[in-house]
Amino acid sequence: MSTALMRAWENRRDTVVVDEPLYAYYLERTGCIHPDRELVLASQPVQWRVVLDNVTSAPFPEGVWIRYAKMMTHHLLPEVDRGALVPFRHAHLIRDPRELLASYAKVRTEPALDDLGLLQQAEIFETFGGPVIDSGDLLADPRGTLTALCQALDVPFDERMLSWPPGPRDTDGVWAPHWYAGVIASTGFAAPRANAEPLPPRLEPLAERCMPYFEKLYRYRLRGGASVADVR
Description:
By secondary structure, the chain is mainly alpha-helical. 44% of the residues lie in helices and 9% in strands. The two termini are 27 Å apart. Residues 226-232 have low confidence and may be disordered.
């Protein structure tokens, strides 16, 4: 879902995207073994300050005024100075932890809480705020959810966000073959599936640990142009 949302923004003519710029830094500092680890390390700077400076200072192509950076919150290790995030406008994509874990476990069979970024996301939301959208709402009502998100970010909604050509992008990270197969084949946001993949029983305790962080953000989600928390 995070990559599909990146596709939506990239399909705008006024936007450029950056795919997980802190991934190599995260792998280098943690020593985590992910698919094609060495290829990822070679593809990006591994100093977080350099990465964030590059994102904020890179020149815009002609006619472009939005830079959309798809960030994985678990890449923001404690040593990353949260003050360095001040120049960014923050928006939060959330997903039911059971669905998130069922998807994540296809690539990493034994994820931990720190792998998922929910704790870090709740922390960043508390510090910086920003609009929250839920993956389920985005699939059920792409137009309404994206319109609400654009309004919250003070940018005009663009119809081009609703569909895009299939295939890989030059902006995809080198890790795309391992993680992006569904999005590469996609042309837009698919309708919600009636029968979600079941969560392996061994991951139920981890899902329970994730729920308080998810629920904290879920109550503020945008839906149909309004924050649910604002209208209750």
